[in-house]
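Late entry, evening session. Most of the bench is empty. Finally got around to the prediction I had been postponing all week. Sequence below, unchanged from the version circulated by S.P.
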Amino acid sequence: MARWICTACGTQFPDVEAPPPVCAICDDDREPPNRQAVPWTTLPDLVATDRRLRVVAHEPGLTGIGTDPAFAIGQRPILARTPAGNILWDCMAWLDGEVERVVRDRGGLAAIAISHPHYYTGMADWAHRFDCPVFLHTDDREWITRPDDAIELWEGETHDLGHGLTLIRCGGHFAGGTVLHDAERRALLSGDIVQVIPDRGWVSFMYSYPNLIPLPAAEVERMAAALEPYAFDSIQGAWWETTIPHDAKAIVRRSADRYIRALAGEMP
């Protein structure tokens, strides 16, 4: 029996003898199909590969944890530190003794919260290793490939994690697409629900990034409105070097306006 991991997106499946015929995540039009030479791996095989841990302090109390080279989609989780316990924002398939030591040296985990199904990856393994819950929005429950008692589904538009950390359902990329607002640090941890793009003066929003399927204007406006009550100066995106350090809230608003105008035929 093995817990198979898709090498294209990092999603982990329950213990079975043989890997699934397809990865449900990669079979969706928000991800390209898995055309990897070796489409499936397991955690023991994965951590035996030639990768090294990368840890970066993005700003005080927000630490990125990932691997170099990247695996699958390549997102890096962020450890948000609070006096009442740390929150791991988003997740990755890679989990070994060195990762555990780095997290425990910084206080361990009180909870895990994930923006959308592309980053569910090995969330159950992480939850059991650190004995903590995983918060997912209930609108995305159909995408849970490995159900586990550690998973706690939340409903509605916001969920308070305490100490100024709030989960906000923005939707867009996925129905339950979530961002994490950090009031103390005036930061927005956005995954790719609000996508940090090469021009750091703007962000974008898409239903499918690899297949370039845009979102309707009404959905983009709703996403911007969901963030309007919250103050934030910076955005930490899903990957290394996807940071907007200043003026982030205004950037989100004007980016939404530009997107909506473009859909209406007003070329920038």
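Two things to note before I forget:
The longest strand covers residues 52-59.
The domain at 58-263 is CATH 3.60.15.10 (Metallo-beta-lactamase; Chain A).
Will write this up properly tomorrow.
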